[in-house]
Amino acid sequence: MNALSTIVAETEAVVSPRYDITVDDRLRYKAGDWLMERRRGSTLDFLNPRTNELLSVTDAELGNLICTGAASILRGETNEKDEEYASAAADLAMFPQPDVEDAERGVAYTKEIFARRLSYRPSHEDFAAAIARVAAHIADPSPPQPYLVKRWVKRAKRRAAAAGRKEEDITAADLIAQHGFKGNRDPRICFEVSKIISEEIERVYLTLERRSFDTLASSIRTRVRLVNRQRQPKDQLDAPGNKAIQTAIRKLGRDYVLERRYGSDQKYQALGPVTRRERPEAPLDDVEADHTKSDLFVMDGMTGAPMGRAIVAFGVDRCTGAPWGVHVGFDPPSAHTILQLLRNGMFPKGYVEIYKAAGIWDIKGSWNVCGRPRRLSVDRAPENLGHDIKALAPSLPIKVVDAKAGRKGRLKGGVESFLGTLNRTLLAEQRGTTFSNILKREDYDPKKNAVITFEELLAKIHAWIIDVFMARKHHGIQDVPRRLWNEKILKYPPAQVENARELIPLFGRIETRILRRDGIRFKDLFYQSSELNAYLTDPEFCRLSKNASGKIEVTFRYDPSDLGAIQVYLPHIKHGENHVRVKVEPRSRAYATGLSVWAHDSIKAVVKARNDGEVNIAELEEAKAKLAADLDRDMPESTKIRGRQMIARIRQIGGIAPFGDCIRTTPVGSFEDVRQRQMDEEGQATAGTAAAHSAGKRKRNNSSRRKNAGGGSRPACGRSRNVKVPSSPGASTGSSKLNDDDIDYYSEEAPRP
Predict the structure, then answer these.
(1) Of the candidates 96, 106, 146, 144, which has an alpha carbon nearest to the alpha carbon of residue 126?
(2) Does residue 324 sit in the same domain as residue 432?
(3) What pLDDT was estimated at residue 712?
(4) Which of 30, 193, 520, 705 could be disulfide-bonded to 189 (CB atoms 3.0-4.6 Å)?
């Protein structure tokens, strides 16, 4: 047993590491340098020259200290700068490859000099011969001069020693070029001025008000002047220059500056990682929808008055990049505009072919993108988070309504890119553009240069979609949208509308009211029908509709652009048409038909203010008539664009989106519909009077000629001076063909505005 212990002890003594340390080496330990005194077997003695403290450690203990980072060995005479170089070059992967190759070339020459124990002398032939041998061995076309190799030898010795290695253990890290240590990097401004710069940057520059750099520089110099007033003339502080201030800002880091001045979203937008979303394999698997305000002023086609910028809503298929639906109007982004966009996108675009056949739109291609999307990607705007969209989605059915995180356009980049392209390539080139960049506007006044009507804007947008965007290569999909759509739908046919009668009533907002014998009261209007009253005696309907109070509560949908009727849900009908259309009571029908909710609320507020909260249909009709007269008077005279936009919204110019074979852009009975019909009637009456006057004049002339020619007769010369011009989309009906009421006749003497 004793013999075995002796063998184990001897084995441990042999295995213990033995460090080769000389009296010229040092031990860096506890923030101090310890000098090597002597070695006693496996024990090393070190002395601290400052405190005369003696440190004795064995080779094993020294190895543990070095492994834990508590101690390090410094070879020969080194300084702090050499240690910084050695630390910075620890990882060669951080350096450019050409610099690493140059360092390895220098190591080859340096190791040859160390191996042959040569010293540099200008006349020493062995030194030059060693350089020539290494150059031939490594095939160096440009061997270094002896003085350069001498410089490499000295540098390699110092840096290897600083890293705790001997001269024969030099590596490329000892000769790597470290440009970051070059130059004077000491601070050039005093501590007091640096403190002032830091405080003013924090107080003035790093705020959400985003004050300019000039404001910051002026604030810093003002504060330096105030501090100098309290200092001696010989102790004045120098005002920092712009470069010193910019350097201080740059040291904070761009990410920190962006977050403080613009917020975390803008910081991520500028510096965050860019991850491309996978495109779906099938068409309409994901449709992105959004609104934008067009960069174009629209004028009234009848009065010529500028109405402001229209709101454009678009849906884009992510799979093929093809536009799916569009709605153009003056209603702000709301549940109504989203529902109009969904209706336009899901139904075939038959109205485009109708306008083309009538010669109203000059479009060559077709727009065959339609169907029910499986997923709808929107932002977190209020109109997208409401109950109406959530309730509509399962009925269409849309499987997922994905509300992306707020103000992160990159999450639905397809539609964002599409809207930007629309504004830049189409609308920005028209007269009346507002210029997205206000600096480009200069002296240009978009209100004075507004020359495009709403009907023309609608036609231009459709022509750009069909004949330009869908026919050219899309950089995102690296293909042409129309070609890719036609290819994909053969393999993955999108779901289409199968029953329009069941689907159309769903495109409305949802409300709940109590059903009584006199009907449903909604916004001080009563909706009733004999069919709805009959359900009051249906036991199944009453059982499913009763609320906790025992009253019959019904759910219905209404069109915000037309209060003339509502769609009441019938809970006891599980299959088929489970909605019944209920019109407003007869005495209110003329008032409510074609009236939007927004206009009705405005009229009702005026009546309530005048009658202490009481409302009756007679006064509502009177207020509506007065409002119509005020709209006709105020549109040309209004000086504020916001007021004109409100007038366009009340009139419902672009109040609804065309879909299927329905070519209407304003509801039947709306202010705009009534105004256009009145203008058409006045135009037809004027044309009829002019025709009668012209016929009478020709009759008198012919009679005079017959008298002069002895009673001979002769046919009237010339052609009719009336020219057929198709009417505007807003005044057209919802039928699939244009009838006589949809064609206006204008004389050449009085051309259409």
Answers:
(1) 146
(2) yes
(3) 38
(4) 193
